[in-house]
Amino acid sequence: MSAAACEVGAIASTDDAKPTPFSQQRVTLSKQEHVELVMQARSWKSLHERAVRRNQWLQALLRRQHEQSKQRESALQGQLDLAQAKIRDLQLRMYGRKSEQRWSVEGRARDHAVAPRPRGQQRGAPGHARTRLTHLSGREETVELDSAQCPACGAPLGIFPGTDDSEVLEIDVRTYRRVIRRRRYRCTCGCGVLPRIVAAPAPPRLIERGKFGISVWVHVLLDKFLYGCPSQRLLHELADQGLPMSAGTLAGGLRTLAPLFAPLHVALREKLRSEPHWHADETRWEVFVDLPGKVGHRWYLWVFQSHSVVHYVLDESRAASVVEAELAGVERGYLSCDRYSAYKKHARQHPGIVLAYCWAHQRRDWLVLGNDHPELQAWAMQWVEQIGQLYHLHGLRAQAGAHGVDGGEVAALNAQLRCAVQRMAEQRDAALADTSTHSAARKVLLSMNKHWAGLTVFVEQPWLAMDNNAAERAIRPAVVGRKNFYGSGSQWSGQLAATMYSVLMTARLWELNARTWLSQYLHACAANGNRAPADISGFLPWAMDAAQLAAMRAVRTGGDEHRGIDSS
User: Fold this and answer.
1) Residue 181 to residues 98, 202, 565: CA-CA distances in angstroms?
2) I need a labelling partner for 169 at 20 to 30 A (CA). Which of 84, 140, 424, 504 fits?
């Protein structure tokens, strides 16, 4: 037997201890056949190894492609979610209700929500009697029967003492001409001090040689800057009342009146700087002039409100320099604002200025999150409920402190508020530490964490408001005006708008009657030779005594022009 045959037989005998039919058979191979078998075995083994390695490479490639596909799918899903969130946000802005109540965001009422109380007088509830406006002048009318006799027999009806009285409120808007007749006198003395013919002096006019009186300009200023009426609509209204005025006359008159209010604008700013707390906000305002180096017509109208003043500033930029100029010389105080970077920069440059961020904006972030991502609505509304609880506790604490409640109760409310704030901070940190938190929710949480110090200023300052709603409300008349007449056609008219908004909104803050105040101020300007009064303290609300405030808050009734109160 050859060596190859012996080798095969040895291998076969050692494969299995138990004899098999094949193990009992002997195969004889030639050397050439053995070599061929060995070469084939090695070839197939090499091919197998290559196939295994290729299979492993293909599997790794498939796994990598699968991971890349998953990542791409995740990215596309994120983009889709973001696009759908934007669509929902835009749909809410365009077609949704403007209220930020929970059911308006979810699109349905809460299951446990109580049905809202109907507006107006409730059925079965005792009502109040009609309000008698006795301060209005009366015009008496006597109504008699056409035929004072019995319709059956024709007997005359006798007069009975007294009348059956009733009242109807009416408005009588009249334009009229003031015909001024200055009486002339002949000089009878011979001293030569006076001319031979002396005439009474002409009454002062607000605009020299102007034909429109003070009452007209009061009407124009209030309609445009307090009620947001466009100039063209105002001109149509005056024309309908028989008082035509051209657009050029209107613009020229307003430009002449603008310097009269400049001292008031400065006084309001000085008073603003003297107080320790301000609300601030800004909105766009179009000024249709072309300035060198400025692209477009977008300017910005800023509002700063303190306890006593509402002050507006018109500037071509939205930079921190506007805040710096408005609060120049002020190194300490509290500034309630949103999260705009200009306020942050001002606070960095003035460490004594503490920013108090607005909780209404933070609440809005959660409402937007719940609207844009329906799967997060329930979770987002939990944060909204907690913010509402903070408002409730802060209001109770402020109310208790203002009414002089026992210190123990105030301390208990203060402890509850601090616990609620700490609990919210812990939930925020836990949600940020959770890797499964949605990316959109994480963005809101990171913003809250970043601004937490400013959001919690009210905890240590019970008198401080939690939000910036005061500035939001103060900017609203300007937003209404911008919507109605788009902005200002020149730089001087934009500055006039800022000044008039400052004056009128400060008057409203002090509950002054804007028509009464403005009429008296313009009369004082006319008496001073068409210039602002030398002493304007009598027109600053914080400098008035109780009697002056009461007079400025009084309603000017019809017929005043006949009594000489508004004789312009």
Assistant:
1) 57, 9, 19
2) 504
